[in-house]
Amino acid sequence: MSMVPTLLSVEGLTKSYGGVHAVRGVSFELRAGEILALIGPNGAGKSTCFDMLNGQNTPDSGRVTILGEDTSGKKPRAIWRLGVGRTFQITATFPTMTVRENVQVALVSHRHQLFNLWSSTPGFARDESGRLLDLVGMGAYAERPCGELAYGDLKRLELAVALANQPKLLLMDEPTAGMAPRERIELMRLTATIAREQSIGVLFTEHDMDVVFEHADRILVLNRGALIAEGSPEEVRGNAQVRAIYLGEGLVYDARHREGAH
Amino acid sequence: MAFYVVQFLTGLASAASLFLVASGLSIIFGVTRIVNFAHGAFYMLGAYLAFTLTERLEGALGFWGGIVAAALVVAVVGVLVEMVLLRRIYHSPELFQLLATFGLTLMVQDIVVLIWGPSDLLGRRAPGFKGAVDFFGQSVPSYDLFLIVLGPVVLGVLWLLFQRTRWGILVRAATQDRDMVAALGVNQKWLFTSVFAVGVFLAALGGALQIPRDAVHHAMDLRIIVEVFVVVVIGGLGSIIGAFVAAVLVSELNAFGILIFPKISIILVFLVMAVVLIVRPWGLFGKPEAPARRTPGLTVNPWRPWTSNERLAAVAALIVAAGLPFFGGNYALTVGSEIAIFVIFAVSLHFLMSVGGLASFGHAAYFGLGAYGVAFLAKLAGLPMIACLLLGPLLGLVGAAVFGFFAVQLSGVYFAMLTLAFAQIVWSIAFQWVAVTGGDNGILGVWPEKWAASPSHFYWLSLGIAALAVLILRIIVFSPFGFALRATRDSPLRSEAIGINGKRIQWTAFVIAGTVAGLAGALFAYLKGSVFPDNMGISLSVDALVMVLLGGVETVFGGVVGAIVYKALNIWLVSQTDWSKLVLGAFIVLIVVAFPKGIVGTLESILNRRRKSSSSNSPLLTSRIETAE
User: Fold this and answer.
1) Most Cβ neighbours (<10 Å): which of A77, B80, B458, B605?
2) Rounded CA separation B611/B621 (Å)
3) B215: left (phi over 0), alpha (psi -120 to 50) or beta
């Protein structure tokens, strides 16, 4: 295990907004080929943590190292250049382009052709874009306008776009949010297969515990900005504190809501 | 000292009218998201109507009654406009409402001349405020003092209206999030109409109150609308207090600028606006704009390169156009050259707007810079024509590189306003730096050399360059760069996440568009044999916008068709009728209502529908989903 290189290492990540400590001293590591889930109740700091990894937010203190490079304060586009692909909780695609063109733009960027004023994009990297779309099962939709796709298909397209970078690391923020249950399992199974085959490290946040326990190699549990547990699915499932947070507090909030409603 | 105090008071008095008009514009924009270009027209109508009413009605009551009645009548006109015209186009693409209100402005310009004649009208002086107040040896008109008091009073009334009434709360809520307000069951239709009525009332009142101070004339609409844009942008769109503070700031800058920096007085205001926009892009009292929501169910047909048939058709059209010298006279050829030049200009803006999503309100700056570039090179350096045509547009390139760098830091309406400010700065330099640019007299005697001097040769030259410009821009649209630019427009979030530096891409696009516009300006200088500050004026920038919108923004080819139709119609109307603006304005309004996608956009959707119905055996499998929010 020690031979496998560390892709992502996070040390003492901290961020607060005013008096609210959104993330407090979070540290963890991610190795190549590993699928790591970041879970926690609403407001635990998952999104803030995630945004600091992908460059959309800068930490107050702490360090993020991706593939040996300190990325704190770097822009998302610089992080992509390191070999990081990402998908969004709410899909972000180019609605006025076809499915294939969405992937082609990512390939244009990957091959440093963004300021090429002369070539014709429709013929650009057709094989590669087709291969990526086939990989995520979207080959048949290649010439469809992206704006017509169903939500689950948009999620798969995002995965293809993220893979265009030949990434070493995939950051997926709630990859299955808004999808039907069967689609969820399929998408994560697909992601896991690709990640294992290509030895890509995957970090994802997720609300659906079925998805988490089925696919994650390791799970990080975040509560009120701090890591409270870390381990294999079995270990986390058996952790008393995690159970208390997921079940106990949930019930408390529920009861308060009901009282407030009357 | 007393002199400066008096100057200050004069500035405050001017601020009152400006504030009234600006607050109206701001309220309308806040709720309806319409940049109401016709606001200046309503201001002007208010002034003309007030002139007539105060002449007819006797006494003090007649005067003040006339002022208020004029504003009320114009407000009713505004309501009719909103109900008949704007309601049909709230869901049209962004900026299309601007085109409609611009059409209205054109119509009103001719209508007031039709009714009141072309000469300036001097109104009655206000009863009770006819004299002047002595102030340490300097006299201040007492009407000015009245206006100085009126400004804060109106501000107070508006504040009460917005804070203390149910209507005001709805307006504020809609300014923040109108979708949410609609979801709560508020009747949007009447909210919009009432807001529009109040906004127009304020504009007309501002105009009516000007008559004791200034002559009423038929160009006062454009003059005020530019100033009002500046005020609203400095103050922050949608903020009443902001409009007040900015109106005072702008008026004082005008009052003192002329004393302290007489050479750059016009620039001063726009310089301040540019600085404010760069430091605080949403204005002094505004709030950052929430990201725009896409209209649900909006699907755009992806662009595709030409099929070989379409390519043949384009070549055939070019050949037909090239045949004009064989059957057209000299006049037709000159008109043809001008149209070709405006095709170049329009496609350059169209590239920026449709591919880049950047609607520049000041594109004429780069057209004009190209023209002046040629004039300098030809007159001062004495370079041959070919060299001038190649090097002249470089001035446009430099201008676009400098201004574009700042402009692309902003987006949406604020981008539009900053480009407008930059264009006004360039215009002011051309206008005021008489020693170099000749000021209002321009630079004369920029004639083409012998080989290009005959109308047919010049026509072929213009047509050739136009065809080349269109071809090159088309290649760029489908190049990797063009896709990166569209990607940045479609989703800044996603494009950044795949390694695209959006600002740098947009900046490059801005420079490309500016250079091509400069090329058009360079040719234009040779066509007219002269250059004037108007070559970079607002009306030219607006012309370009109209051409693009007329052709259709969401098309690859809209700029070309828009330019040909608009320019040909414009030239033809001017030669046929004295009321060309009225007809042209009505035509624009009609197009907007009948073909909200522009001419090419409408043709394309008709073709697409046919294509779909002919292959309708395969039903659409996917359900259309609302675009992720």
Assistant:
1) B458
2) 17
3) beta
